[in-house]
Each structure stands twice: as C-alpha cells, then as structure tokens.
C-alpha cells in the first residue's frame, strides 16, 4: 500500500467517524467537523443551510433523512477523493449509481452529478435503460 493511499484511508476513516445515526433513520452530523466543511464546499445545499439562520446553523447539528447511510458515506468519500467505490460500476450497482446521481442533483453537487452521469451513460444498455 502506498503512503498516499494510506494517508487517504486515514482521512476517510476520520471522516466516517463524524457520521452517526440516531435511533431514528436520520443521519446527524455535528457542524464543527471536517465532514460538514467538505459538505458545504461540495454541495450548494449544505452551504446555504449552514450560512443562514436555519435551525442547523444555530443548533450545530445537520440531519440528513433522505439518504441511506452507506450511500451518504460514499458521497462524502467522493468529496475527498473524486472517486466512488467500484461497486457502483457493476451491473448490480447501477441502481445505487442512479440514486447517487439523484442525490447529487438534489443537493446541488455539479462534480458528483457529472461524474455519475458519465458512469450511467457508459453503462447504459437495453436492460437498465427501462429503469430510467
């Protein structure tokens, strides 16, 4: 394992430790963490949310209720690496890739949206085109 890969893995592990679920199906993130800083840089939605007088900026906690946990972890990983796990590039990962594309659109991340769109176009065939 290269030193760069090891350093990236260390950073990602610290990011993932910022993410936690409450007993409800929502993700809660403290706003004073590197994850939220990256989210506000990578997603216009979070930037607007945290630079306003919304509850999240006042309470210091962001709740994300519309994204499965692992998918959100992968989205945050993309913000640091500009890559998504290879499982999204398989036939079985096509549905998750489409969901990630929807999330990128919903939360206004141009880089992630473009990345996902390119992968979807490259993997589009007769079988999965009907699901779009």
Automatic annotation (TrEMBL):
<feature type="domain" description="BTB">
    <location>
        <begin position="39"/>
        <end position="88"/>
    </location>
</feature>
<dbReference type="Pfam" id="PF00651">
    <property type="entry name" value="BTB"/>
</dbReference>
<protein>
    <recommendedName>
        <fullName>BTB domain-containing protein</fullName>
    </recommendedName>
</protein>
<dbReference type="InterPro" id="IPR000210">
    <property type="entry name" value="BTB/POZ_dom"/>
</dbReference>
<dbReference type="InterPro" id="IPR011333">
    <property type="entry name" value="SKP1/BTB/POZ_sf"/>
</dbReference>
């Amino acid at each position: 394992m290269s030193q760069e890969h090891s350093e990236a893995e260390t950073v990602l592990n610290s990011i993932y430790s910022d993410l936690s679920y409450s007993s409800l199906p929502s993700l809660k993130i403290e706003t004073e963490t590197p994850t939220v800083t990256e989210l506000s840089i990578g997603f216009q939605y979070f930037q607007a949310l945290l630079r306003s007088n919304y509850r999240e900026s006042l309470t210091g906690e962001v709740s994300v209720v519309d994204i499965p946990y692992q998918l959100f972890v992968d989205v945050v990983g993309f913000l640091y690496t500009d890559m998504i796990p290879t499982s999204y590039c398989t036939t079985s990962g096509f549905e998750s890739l489409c969901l990630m594309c929807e999330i990128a659109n919903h939360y206004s991340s141009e880089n992630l949206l473009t990345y996902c769109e390119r992968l979807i176009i490259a993997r589009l065939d007769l079988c999965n085109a009907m699901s779009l």
